[in-house]
Amino acid sequence: MQEPTVGMEVSFSKTVGESDVYAFAGISGDFSPNHIDHEYMSRTRYGQRIAHGVLTLAFMSTCSSKLIESLGNSPTVSYGYDGVRFIKPVFIGDTLTIRYTVVSVDSEAGRSSAKVTVENQNGELVSAATHILKRV
Hints:
It is a single chain. The protein is α+β, with helices and mostly antiparallel strands. It has helices spanning 18-28, 33-36, 38-42, 53-70; strands at residues 9-15, 76-86, 95-106, 111-119, 125-135. A five-stranded antiparallel sheet has the order 1-3-4-5-2, with helices on one face.
C-alpha cells in the first residue's frame, strides 16, 4: 500500500456552469437567493449570482480522490477539512483550478495533511483549506 509523500501535488480545473450551481442547490437544499436569484443579486455589491462556497469544497474533494487514485486506491478516507475559507466570490463562468499539495505525513498515525487552494482564471485565491487523509 503506497502512502503519500510530502510535496505530492494533484490539480483539477473546472469552469463553473449554471447547471453546476442549480444541481448543487438541489443536492444540498441550499436555495439561497445568493445562488439562484439573478434579480436579487444584481442589487448587491457582487452584481450577479455567486456559486456555493461549499461547491468549491466539493472540488477540493475531487483532488483528494485524485491523490488517492495516484496511490493505487489504497484504503483511505477523508478525515476532514480545517481552516476552510471562502475568500472571494465564485461567479458562473469562472474557471477554477484546485491545487492539492501534501504538506505533512504521519506514517505511524496513518494520516497526511494537504494545503488545498482554489484560484479563479485571474489567479485570485477564492477558497483555501487544509485537508486530512486517514488510512483505514
